[in-house]
Design the sequence.
């Protein structure tokens, strides 16, 4: 099971791959849409890649609740435990 | 007395596409036009969907008119007379009559009567469903030549103010003639459905809602008021989708289906000359190409850029354009996959006509 720091680093890698954003710009309090300018389609690609990387299931109806990077890290962490 | 032995239709080993025809309607709708109806920009629409223009049919051009134009071109391309058709299948979700079918009317117009004729309601998978059925009919000896038409007039079922799907949709028609072949021309169909996601792409209202509203308005004596007429017009069924749900399903689930179609045909993606997916959204197409790890040499149809998403018509339209731009692809293997409202999906490897 990954720590929150490890999940954040993994997520930053996925975001970087999808959008080209620098991994260090992916911080816990950043909003996916407002701060990182990630659209709904890119968000879904990130979600599917995160599912694969962390071995969790993120249902479609949960995706809209993942407003910030921290929301995603906490959801993945909770789903892993 | 013993039961007499009956004859059964004799099987045919191989089938192929004999001819292809299309119809592209005359009205070009630009992103600037769309931005008069929704708060958006040309850049936003291009970035999210890949669409620069979509084509729409004028008011006086019907689904059957478009189907007829594409069908006549396909018959001429195949060198087949309408009278030789053993069945006529029309895939559409925008023929404005639940019954009688567009197919029966088309068959009459073409002079193919009394060929069996029916419509297929499989939305954006409709063309691949039609190929699956035509292939089976010819295989089984039920028909020698089968006409398959994918046709949509989606502009009759959109809400210009809707931001979920209406702005990507276009009109058009594509037709093929399927018939016997000396060698394998259509791989096994991988097709199916998942009705648990029936709400993911849907029409906003049912016709019964319009009826019930009209009856209630008439009973209340408000049937003629402007407000009442407006409320009734708002019940007209128009397309909606849950974009994220559809995107996830279309890319990751459909990539598996596409791979199964390759496996069923006994080939790998390296054997393909072209990939002709349903033209839903350029982002779906690009992500599928990535998931399937298609080699560089495989030509990917991207007709969506100026045709929009034409549902059942999109694959034959995209195939036609690819062959027009690159005639050398003719005779090569293409992977085609349709997927959409139902949810439903279908895929085959075919030899390009």
Sequence:
């Amino acid at each position: 099971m990954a720590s929150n720091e490890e999940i954040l680093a993994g997520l930053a890698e996925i975001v970087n791959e999808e959008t080209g954003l620098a991994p260090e710009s992916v911080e816990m309090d950043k909003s996916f849409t407002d701060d990182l300018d990630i659209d709904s389609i890119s968000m879904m690609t990130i979600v599917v890649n995160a599912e694969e990387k962390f071995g969790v299931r993120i249902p479609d109806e949960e995706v809209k609740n993942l407003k910030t990077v921290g929301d995603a890290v906490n959801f993945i962490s909770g789903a892993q435990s | 007395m013993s039961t007499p032995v009956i004859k059964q239709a004799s099987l045919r080993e191989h089938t192929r596409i004999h001819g292809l025809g299309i119809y592209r309607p005359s009205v070009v709708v630009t992103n600037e036009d769309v931005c008069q109806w929704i708060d958006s920009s040309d850049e936003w629409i291009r970035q999210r969907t890949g669409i620069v223009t979509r084509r729409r049919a004028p008011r006086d051009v019907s689904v059957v008119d478009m189907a007829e134009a594409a069908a006549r071109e396909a018959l001429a391309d195949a060198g087949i007379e309408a009278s030789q058709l053993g069945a006529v299948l029309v895939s559409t979700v925008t023929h404005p009559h639940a019954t009688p079918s567009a197919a029966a009317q088309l068959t009459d117009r073409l002079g193919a009567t009394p060929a069996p004729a029916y419509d297929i309601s499989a939305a954006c998978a409709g063309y691949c469903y039609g190929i699956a059925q035509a292939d089976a009919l010819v295989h089984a000896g039920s028909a020698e030549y089968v006409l398959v038409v994918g046709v949509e007039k989606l502009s009759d079922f959109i809400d210009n103010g809707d931001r979920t799907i209406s702005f990507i949709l276009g009109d058009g028609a594509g037709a093929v003639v399927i018939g016997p072949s000396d060698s394998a021309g259509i791989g096994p169909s991988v097709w199916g459905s998942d009705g648990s996601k029936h709400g993911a792409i849907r029409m906003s209202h049912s016709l019964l809602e319009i009826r019930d509203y009209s009856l209630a308005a008439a009973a209340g004596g408000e049937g003629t008021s402007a407000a009442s007429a407006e409320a009734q017009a708002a019940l007209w069924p128009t397309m909606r989708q849950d974009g994220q749900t559809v995107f996830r399903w279309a890319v990751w689930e459909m990539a598996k289906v596409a791979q199964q179609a390759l496996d069923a045909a006994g080939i790998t993606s390296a054997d393909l000359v072209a990939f002709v997916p349903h033209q839903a959204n350029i982002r779906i197409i690009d992500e599928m190409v990535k998931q399937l790890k298609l080699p560089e040499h495989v030509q990917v149809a991207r007709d969506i850029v100026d045709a929009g998403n034409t549902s059942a018509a999109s694959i034959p339209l995209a195939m036609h354009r690819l062959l027009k731009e690159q005639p050398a692809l003719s005779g090569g293997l293409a992977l085609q996959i349709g997927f959409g409202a139902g949810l439903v999906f279908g895929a085959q490897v075919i030899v390009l006509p």
